[in-house]
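Extended Data, panel c. Modelled sequence:
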Amino acid sequence: MNKLKNEAALFKEALIAGVKYAEGRGVVEFEATDSMSEKLLYIYRLLVHDKVIQPLPEDQVAEKTLRHKLAIWYAKQLPKDHPLLK
């Protein structure tokens, strides 16, 4: 697993985009008390269910790998000249 440049910032934006995606689908309404880990896992499972991203082997599903996977997903949606990709 290669670390992306600005991976932490990409993940932060990916989590926001994932919450919007999930709530926009009408399948969930996140509460302020929901932890980041709960949101991360739910968004990952939803994106896999919708066939937006490829699933990881179940033994690799951990917070670190899910953060990376969501950061990659979000990075692919950005224009090539976006500041987070430089």
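The longest helix spans residues 7-25. This feature is highlighted in the accompanying rendering.
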